[in-house]
Amino acid sequence: MIPKVVPHRGDGNSSWRQAVEYVSRHSPEREAELDREAGDIDRTAAELARDIELAGRYDDEAALSHPSRDATLRAAYDAELSADGPPPSKARTLSQAPTLGRVGVLRLEGQEEEHAKVKDEAEYGRDPSRPTMFTNCLSVRTAHAEMKAVSDMCSRAKDPVYHTLLSWRPGERPSDAQMFEAGHASMKAVGMEGHQYVFAVHRDTGNDHLHMLINRVNPETYKAVYPSRDFYKLDRVCREVELAQGWEHDKGQYAVIDRDGQKAIVRASKETRMQEKRPTKARDMEEVGGQESLFSYARGEPRQAVAALLKDPRTSWQDLHGELAKHGLELREKGQGLAIYDKTHPERTPIKASDMHEGLGRGKLVKRLGEYQPPIRAIQIEQPARSYDKHREPARDPSRRDQAREERAQARARLRQQYDEWLSEQTKARQQSRAALRTGDRARFTDLAAHHKARREQIRRTDMPAPMRKALYSVAAMEALQAREQLRAELDDKRKAERADRPQNFREWTGDRAQEGDQAAISQLRGWAYADRRRAKELEKAEQENAKKDGITIEAPAGRQEPLSPRRLAMLDQLGYQVDRRTGDVHYQAKERHVFTDSGRRITFSAAGATDREALAAGLALARQKFGQTLTLTGSEQFKDEAIRVTVEKRLDVRLADPALEARRKVLEAARDVAKPHPRERAQERNQVPDKGRGGQER
């Protein structure tokens, strides 16, 4: 099994109706059928929403606690809003919650066989284009309206549609019940248990797969869930489902290994992949006897040497034999294939050549090097620089390393759970403190209003003349206004201080725990440090590669340069853009083609963007705003020439750091001014008045 997470849009244009229609293979015939299935419940909900007198008729605990209550309520309100007549009151419709909740209970009781039951096995395959559907909404027909009603309650959810799928291997035929079980396990893994969902079983391809549409917004708390590293969590669920249901293990981020006679799920790595291929005798030899197997020895330095040799297209059979002989190994024919033998003790059991390296398979080598050739005499008698010794302890025990990695992962998970609990307590305490402060603030405004009212009443009761009372009323009103403004300023300062005093984030909190000697926190900090160093190396390598491409940069960037917001430059309005959530790079598109990327320190153009004059102009304008007036052009001479022409043609206020390029730019700029001067210069020439002497002649 493998998972796939569909990238979310993030632009607020997701449609529940389109998503449900996509996974359900929507068609007019299917629409008519769904209308017949759900028509009664829709009419009942609309009638109940319009009738206030029925509000308390079914006011029971089942209706009040039903999870679809609020969703059904919103769907009924929308239905009433689109009906003829005056628009309803949302407050009145909200009073129908118990009644509409009862509608959901009636639906589940009356249509249980159709709503929640898995269809009979004999029905599968009759029409693969019509998938089996599962939902915890009232029906598939009303699911999109119910899910939208819940997602609308969370204004911060830009893309409430969470779309993922689970795919089984070719030839595996899971039942709908097994797919349903896998889907629920996946929802629990990503923290969306209890959320609204629509599952669709598709069997019309070579791989049976389950589409899952899940509402990110919780139907009870109305909070959106955006799971981190969800692909890894789903991949682990796939391994768990494979173990539980007996499917063949697929490759992914997690692997299943044998540990102390039991199956264990660990993060996949070179060691775990090697352990999966390791023969049983080799595993027993290392884990029980504490000796290094020929398999592990060959997969070490000899494998690296062979991999480097195979990259050379001039490699021959004798080159391969000679490299293996340096490590005390020999490549021989065995049956229909090739095998790796211990040259010192050829009587020992060999290993498959392809187990040492996938490029040593007989078919691949014959296709590349020709028919097999045995080693020449000189190579056969050559003394190896190193050889295999079974009494040598394994250089690295993969099982122990995997076990240590799993223990670290579990300790870090517990550390994160402790932080979440601490943050929850801090959040509750802050909410209570804010509620108390808000109550006190309202009381202070109330006191001010009461004081001003008493002051006006005192003025009214005096025996002063009317003009004098009018003046006192004005002074009192001004004093009250000044007091309110002073109080508002004081409360604003206090709120800013509250916002600044935020709870620690996970990294800060972990640093404090590490100072206290928490081993899990120390391990987490070390892991972050390793990740930061790896990331820095990746960025440095990417910078070196991009420096050779067509692009714009500055000669000596001062400090860290961040990508510019696409909303800061009017010329970029004609371009689309997409932000890489991992690196922060901004990729710009024109006419659905990638044209250039803003990676902070430089702007790199694609092949399409380097020849698009409008894209070049936009990139140059972006570079001018980011880097200043002086720019450095990199890449091919053709790109530099085109960039200079665009700079001159668009009259961009740009200078080039390369003296030769700057000289070419000035030449083109002078030729442009002679052929087609700037409109402002032509206007000055028209407005210029000739200076005439006394005789009327121009001087």
Descriptive report:
This protein is α+β, with helices and mostly antiparallel strands. It folds into four domains: 244 residues, no CATH class; 126 residues, no CATH class; 104 residues; 137 residues, no CATH class. Helix 2 packs across helix 6, helix 19 packs antiparallel against helix 20 and helix 21 packs across helix 22. The longest helix is centred in the middle third of the chain and has 63 residues.
Tally the helices: what do you get? 27
Tell me the domain tally. Answer: 4
Poorly predicted parts: 27-31, 34-69, 79-126
The total count of strands amounts to: 17
Q: What is the helix content?
A: 40-55%
For this structure, the quaternary state is: single chain
Sheet having the most strands: 7 strands, mixed
Work out the strand percent: 5-15%
Distance from first to last alpha carbon: 93 Å
Strand numbers in spatial order across the main sheet:
12-13-14-15-11-16-17
Mean pLDDT: 77
Using only CA atoms, what is the Rg? 37 Å
Summarize the SSE layout with pairings:
Blueprint: E1 2-5, H1 16-23, H2 28-50, H3 61-65, H4 69-82, H5 90-94, H6 97-110, H7 112-115, E2 132-135, H8 140-151, E3 161-167, H9 176-189, E4 197-202, E5 209-215, H10 230-245, E6 254-259, E7 262-267, H11 270-277, H12 280-287, H13 294-298, H14 301-310, H15 317-326, E8 329-334, E9 337-342, E10 351-352, H16 353-356, H17 362-369, H18 377-380, H19 398-460, H20 466-500, H21 506-515, H22 519-546, E11 551-553, E12 576-579, E13 586-590, E14 593-598, E15 602-605, H23 607-610, H24 613-627, E16 630-634, H25 637-649, E17 655-656, H26 659-675, H27 679-687
Parallel strand pairs: 16-17
Antiparallel strand pairs: 1-3, 2-4, 3-5, 4-5, 6-7, 8-9, 9-10, 11-15, 11-16, 12-13, 13-14, 14-15
